[in-house]
Amino acid sequence: MNTSSMYALSIDQTVNLIATGGTERTVLVQGHMGSGKSTLLKTLADKFPNHVPCYFDCTTKDLGDLSIPNLNTEEGYVSYLPNEEFGIHLDKPVILMFDEWGKGNPAVKLGTLVTMLERKVGTKKLPKGSIVFATTNLGAEGVGDIIPPHARNRMSVVTMRKSDATEWIDYGINNNFHPSVLGFVREFPQVMQGFEDVKNPDDNPYIYHPKHQRAAFVTPRSLEAASDWLHQREHLDDNTLTAVLMGTIGDRAAMDMMAFVKLADQLPSLSSIKQSPLDAKVPESASAVCMVVYRALGAMDRDWVDNWVTYLERLDKEAQGLFAMGVRSNSYAKRSIVMQSKNFTQWAMKNNYMFAADVV
């Protein structure tokens, strides 16, 4: 493992870095395709609600898209009006993201360097407090990202690693990802592996590898797309669903994921757990039980959390612990709903989980 990989940052660490120093210094985030680089803007916007998020796609721009001439006939000179995508006209601090900077036209790269270094477009300054950062793919992926040395020296370049399976599942739970996808990732955590850690591409048939150009493959982005298709399953026959999954996450991953889709058919309905937790079906396979837990974490609401705890006690200890760890995660959006449940508090105390003090 090289030094860059050893010090690759998680998504949360990357966001914190940009939030801390992005007003003065531009961070260029390089990372795997589909690993969540573009979502950094949304996460930062949530962190800075008084800033305006501004997205600038460098792959679709030429030099003339940065600004246009404005002839001042009275004064006898030409000034330049910047593209509205920079947000200068808003009179509010912005979070400006130069996406896919490494693939941009060379003229666009040169034209944006002044913004990255001096926080201005031409003679127009960005509003005070504005944050600027950029993203690009890893050069080793071989998809055309080039960072000239003189440009790199004006930025702070960091590598953002792919989320591991646990981190991605936590994200999926909070974003309504289909339980079949979450179960698949838990069963096959290697789908979150980086190609640089796989010497022989055949050792991991799921992911992109520059030495083996697969037509479709698994990334966090394509897994989210697979989740969207699975949410439409009632409208699709199995052959159609398999075909679209193959074209989204690759042949091998699609076949393995369909096994989890079949398991999903065996899950008890949410309504049966809500209405009769002591009678609702308990799946026989460990994978299906896992999917029940993930589905409950994602769909949890105050009006049925007590009934869920009643049902939870019918599951094996491993499944109960899986739910407990999900609730304990600081990123879990519905944590307070569960923690305020008297039944859950009693269950946690009874099972003597190490986080029991959190719910007292």
Topology readout:
Blueprint: H1 3-6, H2 11-21, E1 27-31, H3 40-47, E2 52-57, E3 67-72, E4 77-82, E5 94-99, H4 106-118, E6 120-121, E7 124-125, E8 131-137, H5 149-152, E9 156-160, H6 165-174, H7 179-187, H8 220-230, H9 238-249, H10 251-264, H11 270-275, H12 286-299, H13 305-312, H14 317-328, H15 335-339, H16 342-351
Parallel strand pairs: 1-8, 1-9, 2-5, 5-8
Antiparallel strand pairs: 3-4, 6-7
Helix pairs in contact: 2-3, 6-7, 7-10, 7-12, 8-9, 9-10, 12-14, 13-16
What does this structure look like?
It is built from 16 helices and nine strands. It has helices spanning 3-6, 11-21, 40-47, 106-118, 149-152, 165-174, 179-187, 220-230, 238-249, 251-264, 270-275, 286-299, 305-312, 317-328, 335-339, 342-351; strands at residues 27-31, 52-57, 67-72, 77-82, 94-99, 120-121, 124-125, 131-137, 156-160. Helix 2 packs across helix 3 (40-47). With 360 residues, the chain is of the alpha/beta class. It has two domains: 3-160, Rossmann fold; 165-359, no CATH class. The two termini are 44 Å apart. A five-stranded parallel β-sheet has the order 2-5-8-1-9, covered by helices on one side.
Short description:
A 5-stranded parallel sheet has the order 2-5-8-1-9, covered by helices on one side.
How much of the sequence is in beta strands? 5-15%
For the CA atoms, what is the radius of gyration? Answer: 24 Å
β-strand number: 9
The chain-level mean pLDDT equals: 91
Overall geometry comes to elongated
Identify the strand order in the major beta sheet.
2-5-8-1-9
Class based on secondary structure composition and strand pairing? alpha/beta
| Helix and strand run | HHEHEEEEHEEEHEHHHHHHHHHHH
Structure annotation, total helices: 16
Could you say how many structural domains there are in total? 2
In angstroms, what separates the terminal alpha carbons?
A: 44 Å
What is the helical fraction, as a range of percent?
A: 40-55%
User: Which blocks of ≥5 consecutive residues have pLDDT under 50?
Assistant: none
* Main β-sheet description: 5 strands, parallel
